[in-house]
């Protein structure tokens, strides 16, 4: 593992040997081998690394079976009544793994240096790794919070500069620790998004109207999925009825607008 104390971001990687499509040796198993070598007892080694005696023997047997030569052997007799130890080959494998681990650590440190400001990469990875059922997850910065008696109106500016408005409870604002200038995610279900055309001069009650170009249309017998690119790298997905899609005459490359209520927006933070 390599850690960057200055940025508070760490790069971490696992080093494994594979054989016959199975994980053969990794840090946890090397730790078990090291404790066997140090303590001369698989019982003590298992306890030291926090696994059961049976699990330790299962791992040792698997390692021995997959290795070219045994790494661990039982020792019988002697003053202690026998025990478990590493073979010469086992000691050499542990030593070689240590060399690989050191090179791996240097590789991660070098990679950290080449990344520069890894904090921004970390924020991106956090965003794209989010797992939510809603089709639309947009990132932005909160610019204004107006609290009422029960609910609050939160204004965000998305990447690209488009404004987005959400209405959530005051309790949610407090629980999420939202404040002006902080980053947040806007989450909108595709079924909550309406689609229209020629709406620039229309007067509508929906607070969020984002217009752009139709990027994709997936038609089904009942519903139609429409993706609209609204600028700034943002795409809004909507699921409307098949009949509505036909009546609107939507085509890929054509102009369209997406609409959704402020109350349909769910806010989240990392």
UniProtKB/TrEMBL annotation:
SUPFAM superfamilies (UniProt xref): MOP-like (SSF50331), Winged helix' DNA-binding domain (SSF46785)
Keyword set includes Glycoprotein: no
Keywords, alphabetical: Molybdenum, Repeat, Transport
Residue ranges constituting the Mop domain according to the UniProt record: 131-197, 203-269
InterPro entries in UniProt: LysR_HTH_N, Mo/tungstate-bd_C_term_dom, ModE, ModE-bd_N, Molybdate_resp_trans_reg, Mop_domain, Transp-assoc_OB_typ1, WH-like_DNA-bd_sf
Annotated Pfam families: HTH_1 (PF00126), TOBE (PF03459)
Sequence similarity: Belongs to the ModE family.
Name of the featured protein: TOBE domain-containing protein
Source species: Geomonas propionica
């Amino acid at each position: 593992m390599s850690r960057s104390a200055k940025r508070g971001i760490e790069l971490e990687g696992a080093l494994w040997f594979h054989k016959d499509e199975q994980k053969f040796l990794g840090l946890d198993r090397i730790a078990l081998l090291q404790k066997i070598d140090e303590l001369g007892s698989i019982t003590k080694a298992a306890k030291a690394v926090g696994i059961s005696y049976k699990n330790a023997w299962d791992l040792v047997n698997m390692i021995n079976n997959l290795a070219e030569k045994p790494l661990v052997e039982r020792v019988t007799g002697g003053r202690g009544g026998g025990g478990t130890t590493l073979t010469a080959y086992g000691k050499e494998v542990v030593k070689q793994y240590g060399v690989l681990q050191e090179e791996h650590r240097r590789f991660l440190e070098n990679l950290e240096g080449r990344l520069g400001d890894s904090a921004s990469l970390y924020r991106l990875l956090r965003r794209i790794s989010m797992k939510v059922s809603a089709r639309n997850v947009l990132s932005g910065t909160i610019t204004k919070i107006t609290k009422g008696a029960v609910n609050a109106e939160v204004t965000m500016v998305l990447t690209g500069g488009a404004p987005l408005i959400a209405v959530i409870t005051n309790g949610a604002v407090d629980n999420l620790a939202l404040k002006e200038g902080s980053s947040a995610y806007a989450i909108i279900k595709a079924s909550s998004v309406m689609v229209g055309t020629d709406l620039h001069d229309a007067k509508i009650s929906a607070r969020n109207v984002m217009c752009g170009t139709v990027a994709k249309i997936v038609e089904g017998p009942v519903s139609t999925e429409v993706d609209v690119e609204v600028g700034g790298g943002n795409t809004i997905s909507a699921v409307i009825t098949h009949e509505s899609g036909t009546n609107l005459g939507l085509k890929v490359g054509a102009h369209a607008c997406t609409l959704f209520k402020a109350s349909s927006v769910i806010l989240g933070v990392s």
